[in-house]
Write a structure and sequence with these properties.
Distance between the termini: 41 Å
Strand content: 5-15%
CATH topology of the largest domain: Rossmann fold
CATH superfamily of the largest domain: HUPs
Radius of gyration: 26 Å
Number of helices: 15
CATH architecture of the largest domain: 3-Layer(aba) Sandwich
Strand order of the largest sheet: 4-3-9-10
CATH class of the largest domain: Alpha Beta
Structural class: alpha/beta
Number of strands: 15
């Protein structure tokens, strides 16, 4: 039996701009979901983590409702041009040259980093993780089909999708709500621009320069596929002509997803997916993240090394909990205060679960309507995966559990077990948070004491009193407190 209201799930569809009742394509409880994965030329950043955390929750909740989910998330390991407008250099080839490595060394290096970070963040692996380079033949086949249907043309060994011709019988802009006349951002005079019939046209296949390492034989030239055709080929191969959910970051809505829809319409007569779902962006201290401005922070700085923008390091479950406190479609701003608040909130939930696990003072009645509360939790998740409302409901149960612990409320043994089971289900199974044994809440007094020791140590380092500095560090290390030194000051984390 499916949990509460699996037939009541509503998902915001970017295609319609509304929440729609979720009706799978298949009538046998199968759900197909495709999410655009990373272009593996750099380390995972926080924006990536937010996007994949959002779709991890969607994946988890669909499975929780009893659906058999085939979750496909690709690896883009070729063809993603640096300007996203069919000009410039393949991002992986460019990074390979800058690091003096082979392109596939770059791919391997950053694919391993991607998997490691997501695993540490307790994000479930997809059902299938195809690579672009592993599906060159499928991409060539689709390009041939688009040419056959008269919606693409070849020029000097490269193949372009004819956007203007397509738009005469279809709507190029159906997802992003852009008019084709407004797409002048692609009209800049750049190398190769003259090959196109129209500045809006996008590449399906690019002829490679002689020095280009990553290239394959095709009917048109030795070259490589365009970025957009990759996802159409891989999603179609594993999920069919029409599947349920296509997701990604909001930055992919245009041009990537718009181009995918155009390709699918020509090849299969569909929009590829019934529901197009987009996770919103992450900002830092109210501004867009930027390396050049210094308003930037990397995951490892939050978890391990510390950052000048933060007062301390934070555990992975805390950062994940922070992300889930905002709806996936809303802009989320990360700050030191927000992370501190999330740390306190998460510790309260863990403490409440620990209370229930150890509770023994049962009664013959319960002062909390568990079933009504449970329904509210499902209502939140069925409303377009509304994790902030769910978390607010979780805190309602925390308040009751604290009353239990203080002897100000009553509960039966069976209700206690039921409440614990529901909490575990939502916190650990659906939200994917971890009851990390390394996560220990430090009370305020202890925090203050450690901060005093860190200040003394910083002064010792400044005065080149390394004996005292090392002594304080070793003393704290022996107590499971790891010191994270930066140029300006030190922070700590708890092992």
């Amino acid at each position: 039996m499916q949990p509460n209201g699996s037939n009541k799930l509503k998902i915001y569809n970017s295609l319609s701009g509304t929440k729609e009742l979720f009706k799978p394509v298949s009538n046998n409880n199968f759900v197909g979901m495709y999410v655009c994965g990373p272009t593996v030329y750099s380390n995972v950043h926080l924006g990536n983590l937010r996007t994949f955390t959002s779709f991890d929750v969607i994946f988890r909740y669909l499975k929780h409702l009893g659906y058999k989910v085939r979750y496909v998330r690709n690896i883009t390991d070729v063809g993603h041009l640096e300007n996203d407008d069919d000009n410039g250099e393949d991002r992986i080839s460019k990074k390979a040259r800058s690091e003096n490595l082979e392109p596939m060394e770059i791919v391997q290096k950053y694919t391993v980093d991607f998997h490691t970070v997501l695993s540490n963040f307790n994000i479930l692996p997809p059902s299938i993780e195809p690579t672009a380079t592993g599906h060159i033949m499928e991409q060539i086949g689709l390009i041939e089909l688009i040419i056959e249907k008269g919606m693409a043309y070849e020029v000097n060994g490269s193949v372009y999708f004819d956007v203007i011709k397509y738009n005469k019988s279809n709507n190029y802009g159906i997802l992003s709500n852009r008019n084709i006349e407004d797409l002048a951002h692609n009209s800049r005079e750049l190398d190769g621009q003259s090959d196109k019939k129209n500045p809006q046209d996008f590449a399906l296949w690019k002829k490679a320069e002689p020095q280009h390492i990553m290239k394959w034989s095709s009917p048109w030239s030795k070259g490589f596929p365009g970025w957009h055709i990759e996802c159409t080929a891989m999603s179609n191969k594993y999920l069919g002509d029409l599947f349920d959910i296509h997701g990604g970051g909001i930055d992919l809505k245009f041009p990537h997803h718009e181009c995918e829809i155009a390709q699918a319409n020509v090849c299969f007569g569909t929009n590829a997916a019934n529901y197009w779902v987009h996770a919103n962006m992450l900002t830092l201290n109210g501004a867009k993240m930027s390396k050049s401005s210094g308003n930037n922070i990397l995951p490892n700085e939050i978890f391990y090394s510390g950052s000048p923008l933060l007062s301390k390091t934070f555990s992975k479950p805390v950062v994940k909990f922070f992300m889930l406190q905002a709806h996936y479609r809303s802009v989320l701003d990360i700050s030191n205060d927000a992370l501190l608040a999330s740390e306190k909130g998460f510790s309260k939930i863990l403490d409440a679960i620990n209370v229930l696990e150890m509770f023994e003072k049962f009664n013959d009645q319960t002062d909390f309507d568990i079933e009504k509360w449970r329904e509210k939790c499902y209502e939140a998740m069925n409303d377009d995966f509304n994790t902030p409302i769910l978390i607010a409901n979780l805190f309602d149960s925390v308040k009751f559990i604290n009353q239990l612990n203080n002897g100000k409320a009553k509960i039966t043994k069976s209700d206690c077990n039921n409440l614990l089971q529901i909490l575990n289900s939502f916190v650990f199974e659906i939200l994917g948070l971890e009851k990390n044994i390394k996560f220990k809440r430090v009370n305020d007094k202890t925090n203050e004491f450690i901060e005093i020791l860190l200040k003394l140590r910083d002064e010792a380092r400044l005065n080149k009193n390394y004996e005292l500095s090392d002594k304080i560090r070793d003393m704290l290390n022996n107590k499971g407190i790891v010191i994270n030194d930066s140029e300006k000051n030190s922070s700590f984390s708890i092992n």
